[in-house]
Amino acid sequence: MALIDMFLAARVKRGQLTVHHANGTVRTFGTPDPDPDFPNVSIRFTDNGAASFIVRNPSLGAGEAYMQGRMTVDGEDVMSLVRLMTANDLWEHGLGALHASRARRAVAAVTHRLNRVNMARRSKKNVAHHYDLSDRLYDLFLDADRQYSCAYFTDPANSLEQAQADKKAHIAAKLALKPGMKVLDIGCGWGGMALYLHARTGAEVLGVTLSEEQLKVARRRAEEAGVADKVRFELIDYRHVTGSFDRIVSVGMFEHVGPAHYRTFFRQCRDLLTEDGVMLLHTIGRAGGPGVTDDWTAKYIFPGGYNPALSEIVKANEGLRFFLTDVEVLRLHYSYTIDHWYERTVAARDAIVALYDEPFYRMWQFYLAGASCAFRYGGMVNYQLQYAKNRHTLPITRDYMIEEERALRAG
To answer: Beta 380-388 vs 273-286: how paired, if at all?
Structure first.
């Protein structure tokens, strides 16, 4: 029995995986299961070395083999393959059956920690790697407002557009905005959140980004909306922002800060806030303790990126006299979000291949499949953390959040 067959036999128990080896051998693992989390999947290795390549480092090897066409999935449904493997390795069971060897993980830990030292120059380069891709690509799989972060599903059956609108309302309600306030949006993306906050509350917003492509789009949107004097966007690192703000919001940017700079981030945010200032931080995070970014994601998707453990976030803020006033954990919301992105990516296959090539399409498809399953079966969640400089600034119960969110959603 080949090493890959032993690997799969030990890991696929529910659902069924059929493997077609390059030499013509066919093997089947697992047992058919009516639960959709455990689908029946068929894969094919197109060369004799692909299987052993994957076994050496499953997370990196599987992604690269799929990108290169060395491993194919019948129906091109790589989501089913990733779902089958990860559903058989639930985070809460603590097996880590898909991890690389202990020795390889030790090397990766050192490498990733070095790569996470995100000084300003490297931060801009890392951001450009992912966010300065073609505008057309993001139009093909995101909602019209280009919200490239976890949506908020008040009902899992909601559309992506509805869930992203509800996400903005959910965050705005936690900011407790009042007319005339000045807001800083750190990692403003294509400007959707900044434009929403101004439109719904009248706040003046400064959005900052390190992506030149995002900056162009955000400024164009503000001009087209006739609010460029109230909603401004700048290409600047958060460490270099000056001024004073009543509110700070940061959505999906903290993952690029790097643990070595968490304390710098919180100190800067505290110093930029007025005495009655409030901040809302929305970030992907680990349900468990500190770890390292998997090799494939670090190499192909988010170089220098790292999803923090809650303990790392809390520790970075200790001693700064900056009140942590509210914490919410969003568990399945990002999986629902990415499922929409995946479906739109698959539907736009020909357009994406025309923009880039077949390996890029398969890379993007594998990235989204893995990300969705990380939130559905793995140890990834989203955290929303609210901070205030003054203990008296915010109401002492959460009722105001619910009331304001309902008003914003009805607006």
So the answer is: antiparallel
pLDDT tens per residue across span 149-189: 999 999 999 999 999 999 999 999 999 999 899 999 999 99
Cα 327 to Cα 311: distance, rounded to the nearest angstrom: 12
| DSSP-based three-state secondary structure for 325 | strand
How many other C-beta atoms are found inside a 10 Å radius of the C-beta of residue 45? 23
| Structural contact between residues 325 and 273, judged by C-beta atoms closer than 8 angstroms | no
Segment 134-151, tens digit of pLDDT: 788 999 999 999 999 999
| Count of all residues that appear for the chain in the document | 411
pLDDT of residue 101: 47
Specify the amino acid at residue 269. C
Write out the H or E segment, with its range, that includes residue 388. Answer: strand 380-388
pLDDT digits 0-9 by tens, 80-115: 999 999 999 999 987 765 654 454 444 455 455 555
Question: Contact at 8 Å (CB) between 270 and 34?
Answer: no
396 burial (CB, 10 Å; 0-12 / 13-18 / 19+) is exposed
**How far is the CA of 124 from the CAs of 121, 128, 138, 189, 404, in angstroms?**
5, 6, 19, 14, 36
Distance CA 354, CA 78 (A): 20
**Pairing mode of beta strands 26-31, 15-20:** antiparallel
Mean pLDDT across the chain: 92
Asked if 194 and 185 count as a contact pair (C-beta separation under 8 A), the reply is yes
pLDDT at 18: 97
Does residue 58 register a pLDDT over 60? yes
Tell me what the mean pLDDT of segment 117-128 comes to. Answer: 57
| pLDDT per position as a tens digit, 193-233 | 999 999 999 999 999 999 999 999 999 999 999 999 999 99
Residue pair 58/98 in contact by the 8 Å Cβ criterion: yes
Gyration radius of the chain over CA positions: 22
Q: What angle do CA 234, 237, 238 make, to 5 degrees?
A: 95
At residue 159, the 3 state secondary structure works out as coil
Report the C-alpha gap between 218 and 228 in whole angstroms. 10
This prediction has a pTM of 0.92
Q: Name the residue type at position 402.
A: I
Question: Rounded to 5 degrees, what angle do the CA atoms 330, 332, 337 make?
Answer: 100
Q: What is the DSSP string of 236-286?
A: --GGG--S-EEEEEEES-GGGT-GGGHHHHHHHHHHHEEEEEEEEEEEEEE
